[in-house]
Structure formats: C-alpha cells, structure tokens
Amino acid sequence: MSDQQKMEHIVSLAKRRGFIYPGSDVYGGLSGTWDFGPLGTQLKRNIMQLWWKMFVDERHDMYGVDSAILMNQKVWQASGHVDTFVDPLVEDTETKQRFRADHLLKDAGFDVDGLGLDELTKLVRDNNVKSPNGNELSDVRTFNMMFKTFVGPTALGGVTDQQGEAAVNIATGSELIAFDPSSVSYLRPETAQGIFTNYRNIVDSFYPDLPFGLAQQGKAFRNEISPRDFIFRSREFEQMEIEYFVDPDEWEASFEHWRQQVWKWTQALGLPDESVHELEVPESDRAHYSKRTIDFEFDFPIGREELLGLAYRTDFDLGNIQRVSGKNMDYTLKGTNRKFVPHVIEPSFGVERAVMAVLSNAYTEDEVNGETRIFLRLPEHLAPVRFAVSPLVRNKPELVEKAREVYEILKKKYGAVMWDDSGNIGKRYRRQDEIGTPHCVVIDFETLEDGTVTVRDRDTTQQARVKIEEL
Ligand code: GAP
Fold first, then answer.
1. Domains of the chain, with CATH numbers?
2. Distance between CA atoms of 267 and 265, rounded to whole angstroms?
3. pTM of the model
C-alpha cells in the first residue's frame, strides 16, 4: 500500500467510523474545518488529558490557565502578529484562485527556505512556474493569516476598507459608515498570547519560584491560504502550549530539559522514536520571536512534516507587553534583589497533528483467515473504546442479562466501554478492530457455569478465558 493510499484509507475510516467528519458537511463543507465524531472526540480528549497529566498535574512547577479567545487588539499589535504573521500568496491571473507561493514552488522542486517575496517572485518568473490550472501567476505578496472580527455593533457586516477604518459597500468599495477602529479584534492564532497576558496576574497571585510554567489548551484560528492534508493544516485547530519562564542565564538548560520532555511525550503517544525527527530551524526560517527553534517532525503518510515545535522566545513577548502596556513585567528572584524580565522556552503542541500521527501510526492491515483485516493498533491508554462487551448470541435472555451485568461493571470502572451485539461475533471483532478496541469481552454459556468470559486481543486475535472479577 502506498503512503497516498494509506492516507486515503485513514480519511475514509475516520469518516465511516465516526472519528472525524469534514466540517459543515451537510452544506457542502467549509474548507479547512473538521468536526470530531464520538470516537474522534474521545481520542482527542485522551490525548489532551494525557498531556495535562504529564505536564501540569504531575509537575510541581506548572500552572494551568484558560484565557479568552477574543483579546484586545493591542495583544496582536504588541506581539508582532498584525505586521508579520503572514504567508506568501500568489494569484492565478485567470481564475483569481489563490495559492501559497512557497508550496507551489516546493511542489515544483525548488528550494524556497528563507526566501523573501522578491526572491520568490523571481523564482516564479525565471522558471515560468504556472498555477495548478496552467495559468500565469501574479507577483508574490503577503497575506495576514489572522481572522479579523469586530467587537460590538460597530461595523456593517464586518466589511471594511483596506485600512480597516470604515465599513464599505462590498460591490463598490465606497464608504458606508465610519466606525471605531478600536472595535477590531482577532480570533487568536496561537494560545500563547493568552498566557503571556496573564503572566503578571499569576506572579502576583502565586509568586511561583523561577523557573515555572503556564500551560493552556484551546482553539487557535489561522486563515490558511491552502488548508490541506486532512486535519494537518486546518483553519481552526487546537493547541496545547507551555510558556516556561526562566532566568535568562539558564535558558539553555531549560531548552534541553524541554527537548527531553518532548521525546517523552512522543513516546507516550506510542510513536516510534525512529519516526520522529528533530529539525534545527535555521535563522531565516524561524518565527519573528524566536532565537532558537527545533521542529519535531513525524513521518506522516503525507511525508515528513512538523508535529510540534520547541522555541526559545527570549523576553520578546513580556518585553513587548511591558513596552506597550506600560506595566512592569519584572520578576524579583527570591532571596535576592535581582530583578529581570524572565525569558521563555515554549514547547507548542498541535492536537490535530498529534491525532493524525497517532492514527497513521496505528493504521494496520494484516491477513486473518485468508481475509484482509483493517485495525488500529492504538495504545490502550488512548483508545476511544477500551472494552467491547457482547453476548455470544442475542436471542438467549440469560446470556444478554449476564453480558449487561459485565458491561455495567466495566463501564463503571473504565468509562470507555461499548455494548456491541449486532451481527455475528466475527463481524463484531472486525468492527471493533477498525476502531482500535484492545479487548472484546464475550459472554457465553460457560460464563453462566463458571463466571469466566472470553477476552479476545485486538493485535494477536488470541482469545483467553478470564474470570469476570479479574477483568
Ligand atoms: N505559539 C507558537 C506557535 O503557535 P506554530 O509552530 O505556529 O507555533 C505550533 O504552531 C503548532 O500548532 C504546530 O507545531 C502544529 O502542531 C500546530 N499547528 C500550527 N498551524 C496549524 C494548522 N494550520 N493546522 C493544524 N495544526 C497547526
């Protein structure tokens, strides 16, 4: 099976079995958005809860926050996102369709790392690169990826002129009504800023020892020019981010600490070390705030791509907040008079990319009794369903009653337990294999006699008899 076929099989299984559906599917979809069904929601929650447990609950130096998605526009001015959170865009001069210039050029075999707008345009022109429709391309220009919105009833339909200073008529571009530019806000493109803006609050409330970290999970939004590759590049997704505040003299040790923690995380997701790779990002490709970045890449079926990032953000963010807000961001080192603005190490994890890595790592096809079997070899602690319980046959009330009893016991203990009594037992096994259920428990006539059940293992397909109380 080729990687492309594997990807297609995963997308199809995800939809068919209720993991992930295209967003707004019933209305023809909305590009770059995805809805999680019951099994996908559980898988995603398991991943997010594991992260919270590892990085917040089990540590002594972490504090959780949950900040608002809509923030004062000054946040995004101070952070540099209004000016620099851009991707290079080209337009098909015939169809007016827009594409990411760097993606088009990469797909055409060019190395575009670190190139500016003029250099990208030159590459397009010199090599006569065409749009995927075969038409001429425009010059390359920048496109800000933040979703802009308006807080309060100030703009008509939210359509503004290019400076964002007046509501305009869509057809003519003529001004309709002046409005208060301070009503402009953005859907956050990273959860990080909601952490930085709360740094002072947390220090004042808790006065934590340095180093300490603030952690947040939540939605982020980016108006990606070309969302693609299933949930890999979406316009709405979830992040799990840590801003770890350190003494500037000790940033290297903390960076190394988090590098090791990231490896622990990929191992906890069950990803083999040989499929995860560190990429030291060169200066020309680093985000505007970073002095050092390692991208952790994973061998997805779509190729080797970024799974998560680890960045040294220096005092860039707290320094900007201090400058723009006029509020002091100093930390006074306990037991000393030394004051400084802490520096920051930021491990930043994308939830959807973790889900996609886990699903692609788990997707397996083998042969059982001469037939191809599809199964998800999910780690047990991530599987959306841990046990499926069924009576051997449905038309024996005493078996159904006993099976219900076992189901209730397991449901109370593990939560993630499914009742499954439709079709014959072989079909049930196949269905549970496809969603990655590690154990299928079957209640048969022997159960009524000696209190044992059959437990069938997903990976080996072996069956064993186990006492109910030992499940
Ligand atoms: N606060 C730093 C930050 O946001 P980033 O590298 O732009 O850094 C961090 O994003 C992570 O968020 C990425 O490594 C990826 O896992 C995830 N991510 C970014 N853009 C995404 C998108 N369009 N769709 C899905 N996940 C995305």
1. 3-72+189-360 (3.30.930.10), 385-470 (3.40.50.800)
2. 5
3. 0.93
